[in-house]
Amino acid sequence: MKGRERATDVLVKLMAGEKITTDVDGKAYYQVSERSLERDTKLIRETLAANEADYQLRQKGKTYWLTRDGTLASEEILALLKIVIGTRALTRDELVRVKDHLLELVSDAERPVMQKLISTTLVQYTPLFSNGDHEILPRLKDFAAWVAKKTPIKFHYRSSVPDAKGRTLAKPGSGVPLSIYFADFYFYVVLYIPEQNDSRIYRLDRFQDARATRTVIKVPSDKKIDEGALRNRTYLLSGGSDTPYEFRYWGYPQTALDKLPNSRITDWNRADGSVTIKGDHLASQGALLWVLSQGAQIQVMAPQSLVTAVKDELARTLKHYG
Q1: Quick one: what percent of the chain has pLDDT higher than 90?
Q2: Can you give the residue range of the structural domain that contains 311?
Q3: Could you identify which of 56, 90, 213, 222 might form a hypothetical disulfide with 95, taking C-beta atoms 3.0 to 4.6 angstroms apart as the criterion?
Q4: Does a structural domain hold residue 132?
Q5: Which of 49-53, 76-80, 191-195 has the lowest average pLDDT?
Q6: Who has greater pLDDT, 294 or 66?
Q7: Taking the CB of residue 291, how many other CB atoms lie within 10 A of it?
Q8: Helix ranges (DSSP H) in the chain
């Protein structure tokens, strides 16, 4: 084995986590002198330094190994992992793989501490019931490719509304994926539906199957929803149309503002401690659920359709209590 070929072999082993020695074992394996192996390690050290690599060649006596400085700071990795764990959107197996990949970007010195911080959280990790053991990342990969190329697809989509027998059936459909985003535990896909000449929102985990087709579908320019604007409009999404709204809110105002991006306080009522909150877009079905979760801390002023929906739902609720 020639000098540079041998040095490459040594480097590959080091990067795989092995330790290399220049003593009897190393000399016997490579059939060279200790001096030759030391020249190899010197070349590796100089090459890493010249290329500003994330790796550092460490030495203790005649033993050499590599450590990583870390591509990302440990606090950045910790934040990302805690966010991913908090969403509960991945299966346990997916989460473990993501965790392992991210921890590879942390320096060797900090990795044990990070492992300990994350392992205590993983013990109690429970993925969303709706996902079960169905991995979401393969679907995310497919839809990301289709969004990038605006590829028409056919699919079956499981409804959230059960039929008379309590079943949630999957219905066929077709369209063009325009965007993917994440909100409130789930990944969502924006699809242009040619039969309706409109862009609709679907939950990624509810696709029973999806496949690319050769059908040519041209998406009108006014249906190509901007992802940033979309995210601000569909934070309470479970379907329905976007509607301007007005609330009176007696709770901590920031709680409502955090839930309603791009909303604004237009009036402070000092007499009763309420604020008036207005916004331009609200997904009506999701809004009903959120309003009901706020109890007596909120009063819907507009739109009238949401006022009526809240009254009807509260009336039905009261019937459960005699």
Answers
A1: 37
A2: 245-319
A3: 90
A4: no
A5: 49-53
A6: 294
A7: 23
A8: 3-15, 24-30, 34-50, 74-87, 92-103, 111-122, 137-149, 227-233, 253-259, 284-293, 304-319
Q: What are 221-243's pLDDT values in tens digits?
A: 877 765 555 544 434 434 445 57
In the prediction, which pLDDT does 260 show?
78
Cis, bond preceding 112 (omega within 30 deg of 0): no
Distance CA 192, CA 321 (A): 44
Whether 130 is covered by a domain: the verdict is: no
How far is Cα of residue 76 from the mean position of the Cα atoms in its chain? 15
Residues in the chain: 322
Residue 236 domain flag: no
In 3-state terms, the chain is what percent helix, strand and coil (to 5)? 45, 25, 35
CATH number reported for the structural domain that contains residue 151 in this entry: 2.30.30
10 Å CB burial of residue 266 (0-12, 13-18, 19+) is: exposed
Q: How many domains does the chain have?
A: 4
Q: How many CB atoms lie within 10 A of CB 146?
A: 21
User: Could you tell me which residue, 317 or 33, shows the higher pLDDT?
Assistant: 317
Q: For residue 153, give every residue at least 6 positions away whose Cβ sits within 8 Å of its Cβ, in sequence order, or none.
A: 146, 174, 175, 176, 177, 210, 211, 212, 213
d(CA 152, CA 213): 6
234 domain residue, yes or no: no
Q: Are residues 198 and 220 in the same domain?
A: yes
58-107 per-position pLDDT tens digit:
888 888 888 776 667 888 899 999 999 998 999 999 999 999 989 888 88
My answer on whether 264 and 314 are in the same domain is yes
In whole angstroms, give the CA distance from residue 161 to residue 247: 28
CA-CA distance, 294 to 2, in Å (whole number)?
74
Task: Look up residue 103 and give its two tokens.
Answer: 């921890």
